[in-house]
C-alpha cells in the first residue's frame, strides 16, 4: 500500500486560483500540473512536498518521480506525462508540521482521492486545503547503549477497508537522552504506534507496539483529533533478534494439515467455520481459492483426486467445519472424495454443508470462486495472474487476501480479456486492479482491456523472474510486517496452503530456492520490519539453510534494484527458534482487527446461498 493520509479542515486562508485551461504540452508531450494550497494553520514558513502517483502502468513510476515544494500557497510541477494520477500533499514543513497531509479531494485515504487526467482536462487549477494537524508524543525506552530513537511510526487505520495507511507525519524530538518523541503532521483518525528501528538494514532494537505488544495485533489504537496533541503514548523495547521456524508435515497433504492446526483452534459443535478443499497434485483450481479462504477466515486443505489423505481427513475432524467448499470438478476432486466429505457431519456430530465450486476449465472455476465469494460485495482490489503457471499467482493469493480482494486467473497469452472475465470484474467495480507478472505472463492487450473497466487503477507488479515479481507484489501491497513466510518457488503445494494464512496475517510470502532466501527479498522484508521467518514444507522443499536465514548471493535471484542495500546477516547460531504457540491467537486477533474495519466483508454464508 502506498503512503496515504489525512482528513479535512476549514480553510482559513484564501489564495487566488490559477487559470483553468490545461497547461500546454511540451515537445516531449508532457504537461504542467499545479494549483493552490490553503493552510488551515496559516504560516509564511509552511512548505509542502507534492507528489503525483500514477493509477496505471507500474508503481516504479510513482512515489516521487514528480515532486516539488510549494510555498506561498502556489504549487506547480512540469514535465508530467499524460495519464491519470492521484496527488498527495505531504505534511507541511517549516511550520513544525502544523498542517497535516492530505490527498487531492480532501481525504485522508488514497483510494478516496480525486483522480486527475493529465492531458485530457484542466490540471493547473487544483486546489486543496491542508487540515490542522494533530500529533502523538511520548517516551521511548531503548536497550542499554542505544540512543537513536528515529523509529517511531504512526499508521492510520482506514475503517472502510480494514487496512493501515502510512501516515505522512514528521517525527521530531526523539533523539534526546530522555527518549522523548513527537510524531507531527497527523490528521484526525485512529492510529497504531509502532516502535521500530529504521537504521537501514541493520536493526538494533526489537519492534514493539503501543502499549507493549510484540505484534500489530497486540496494539491499541490511538485516536488523534485535528490540532491536538495526544500525549503519554510511551513504549519500551529490547534488543533486536532474528527468529525462524518451520511449518511442515511428512508430505504436501500433511503440511497443509499442519498449517491448519497451527493457525486454527479445534472446532466446536456450535461454531460457524469454513474450509476449502482443493487438489494438491495440480495447481490451477486451488490458486483462486487461497484468497477466498483468507477472506472467509478458513484454511485451505489439499486432497488427491481419487482419495482423501488420512492427514486431511483427521484435520477436518479436528477443525469441525460447518461449510466445506470443494474447488474444481470431478477431474480435480472425484466422487470418492466427495462422498467421504459428505460423511463428515456424521463423524463430527455437526451439521455440515458441502458445496462444489467448479467450471468447465480452470478459468471458469476461478470465476465461479470469485463470483460466489465476492460477487455483489464492494471490492477494493482485484488481482490478475496467469492460469498457465503458478509462481505469480501464489504470491498474488496472499496479497489479495490481505487486501480483502479476489484473485482471478486469466489466459495470459491471449491478446485481450475474455468476455466473461471482463463482465465479472466490471460487476465488482474495484478501485484497483493489480496484474501480477510481466507481459510474458499477462499480455499488454489484457492490461489495456482492464483499463477500460470503469477506469480503475491498473498497475502491473512484475520482476525479471518469479522472485522479482514476489518482491514487486510485497513492496506494493504490504505497508509493514512482523513476520514472513518462505516457500519453495519451484513447486506449488506448500505455498498454496500457507497463502490463505499469510493474507489473513498481513504477512508477505517470499519465494525461495531450496537452499537460501534471495538477498533482495530479505532486504525488502527487513525494510518492512520482518524479524521472524517461517519456512513452509519439509527439508526436501527448504533445507535447514533457509531456517538458518542463509541468503543467496546478491543478484542471483530477484530484482537488482534492491541490492544496493546492505542487510545485516545473522551470525551462525544467532537465529532463535520462533514460538508457534501464539500463532492461533495472532491469526484470530488479525482477523478481528481487519474484520472490524470492513462491514461488507463476505461471509461463509455466500458459499451456501450461491453468492
UniProtKB/TrEMBL annotation:
Q: Enumerate the PANTHER family for this protein.
A: GERMINATION-SPECIFIC N-ACETYLMURAMOYL-L-ALANINE AMIDASE, N-ACETYLMURAMOYL-L-ALANINE AMIDASE-RELATED
What does the organism's lineage look like at the top? Answer: Bacteria, Bacillati, Actinomycetota, Actinomycetes, Micrococcales
Question: What name appears for this protein in its UniProt entry?
Answer: Cell wall-binding repeat-containing protein
Q: What's a Pfam family in this record?
A: CW_binding_2
InterPro entries, alphabetically? Bact_Sporulation_Assoc, Cell_wall-bd_2
Recite the UniProt keywords alphabetically.
Answer: Signal
Chain segments carrying region Disordered: 591-611
Q: Which superkingdom heads the taxonomic lineage of this protein's source?
A: Bacteria
Annotated signal sequence range: 1-27
Amino acid at each position: 500500500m502506498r503512503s496515504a493520509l489525512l482528513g479535512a479542515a476549514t480553510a482559513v486562508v484564501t489564495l487566488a486560483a490559477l487559470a483553468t485551461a490545461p497547461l500546454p504540452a511540451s515537445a516531449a508531450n508532457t504537461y504542467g500540473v499545479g494549483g493552490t494550497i490553503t493552510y488551515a494553520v496559516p504560516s509564511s514558513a509552511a512548505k509542502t512536498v507534492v507528489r503525483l502517483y500514477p493509477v496505471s502502468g507500474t508503481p516504479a513510476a510513482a512515489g516521487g518521480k514528480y515532486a516539488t515544494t510549494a510555498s506561498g500557497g502556489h504549487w506547480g510541477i512540469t514535465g508530467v506525462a499524460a495519464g491519470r494520477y492521484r496527488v498527495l500533499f505531504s505534511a507541511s514543513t517549516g511550520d513544525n508540521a502544523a498542517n497535516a497531509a492530505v490527498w487531492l479531494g480532501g481525504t485522508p485515504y488514497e483510494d478516496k482521492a480525486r483522480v486527475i487526467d493529465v492531458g485530457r482536462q484542466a490540471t493547473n487549477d487544483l486546489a486543496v486545503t491542508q487540515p490542522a494537524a494533530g500529533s502523538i508524543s511520548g517516551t521511548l525506552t531503548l536497550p542499554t547503549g542505544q540512543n537513536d530513537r528515529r523509529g517511531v511510526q504512526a499508521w492510520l487505520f482506514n475503517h472502510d477497508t480494514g487496512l493501515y495507511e502510512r501516515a505522512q507525519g514528521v517525527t521530531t524530538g526523539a533523539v534526546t537522552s530522555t527518549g522523548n518523541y513527537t510524531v507531527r503532521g497527523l490528521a484526525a483518525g485512529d492510529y497504531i504506534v509502532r516502535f521500530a528501528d529504521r537504521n537501514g538494514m541493520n536493526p538494533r532494537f526489537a519492534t514493539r507496539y503501543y502499549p507493549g505488544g510484540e505484534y500489530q495485533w497486540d496494539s491499541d489504537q490511538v485516536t488523534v483529533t485535528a490540532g491536538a496533541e495526544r500525549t503519554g503514548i510511551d513504549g519500551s523495547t529490547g534488543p533486536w533478534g532474528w527468529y525462524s521456524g518451520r511449518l511442515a508435515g511428512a508430505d504436501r497433504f500433511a503440511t497443509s494439515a499442519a498449517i491448519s492446526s497451527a493457525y486454527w483452534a479445534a472446532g466446536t459443535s456450535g461454531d460457524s467455520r469454513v474450509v476449502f478443499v482443493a487438489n494438491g497434485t495440480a495447481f490451477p483450481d486451488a490458486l483462486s481459492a487461497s484468497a477466498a479462504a483468507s477472506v472467509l477466515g478458513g484454511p485451505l486443505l489439499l486432497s488427491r483426486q481419487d482419495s482423501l489423505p488420512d492427514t486431511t481427513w483427521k484435520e477436518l475432524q479436528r477443525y469441525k467445519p460447518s461449510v466445506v467448499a470443494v474447488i474444481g470438478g470431478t477431474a480435480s476432486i472425484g466422487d470418492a472424495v466427495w462422498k467421504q466429505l459428505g460423511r463428515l457431519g456424521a463423524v463430527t456430530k455437526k451439521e455440515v454443508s458441502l458445496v462444489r465450486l467448479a467450471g468447465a476449465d480452470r478459468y471458469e472455476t476461478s470465476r465461479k470462486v470469485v463470483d460466489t465469494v465476492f460477487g455483489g460485495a464492494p471490492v477494493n482490489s482485484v488481482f490478475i495472474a496467469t492460469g498457465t503457471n503458478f509462481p505469480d499467482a501464489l504470491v498474488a493469493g496472499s496479497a489479495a487476501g490481505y487486501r480483502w480482494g479476489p484473485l482471478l486467473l486469466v489466459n495470459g497469452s491471449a491478446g485481450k480479456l475474455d468476455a466473461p472475465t471482463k463482465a465479472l470484474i466490471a460487476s465488482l467495480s474495484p478501485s484497483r486492479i493489480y496484474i501480477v507478472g510481466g507481459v510474458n505472463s499477462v499480455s499488454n492487450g489484457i492490461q489495456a482491456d482492464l483499463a477500460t473497466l470503469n477506469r480503475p487503477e491498473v498497475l502491473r507488479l512484475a520482476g525479471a523472474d518469479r522472485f522479482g515479481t514476489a518482491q514487486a507484489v510485497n513492496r506494493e501491497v504490504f505497508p509493514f510486517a512482523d513476520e514472513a513466510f518462505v516457500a519453495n518457488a519451484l513447486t506449488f503445494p506448500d505455498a498454496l496452503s500457507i497463502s490463505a494464512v499469510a493474507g489473513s496475517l498481513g504477512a508477505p510470502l517470499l519465494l525461495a530456492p531450496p537452499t537460501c532466501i534471495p538477498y533482495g527479498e530479505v532486504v525488502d522484508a527487513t525494510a518492512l520490519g520482518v524479524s521472524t521467518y517461517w519456512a513452509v514444507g519439509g527439508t526436501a522443499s527448504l533445507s535447514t539453510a533457509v531456517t538458518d536465514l542463509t541468503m543467496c548471493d546478491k543478484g542471483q535471484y530477484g530484482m537488482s534494484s534492491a541490492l544496493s542495500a546492505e542487510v545485516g546477516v545473522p551470525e551462525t547460531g544467532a537465529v532463535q527458534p520462533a514460538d508457534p504457540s501464539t500463532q492461533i491467537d495472532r491469526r484470530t486477533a488479525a482477523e478481528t482487527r481487519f474484520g472490524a474495519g470492513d462491514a461488507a466483508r463476505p461471509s461463509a454464508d455466500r458459499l451456501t446461498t450461491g453468492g
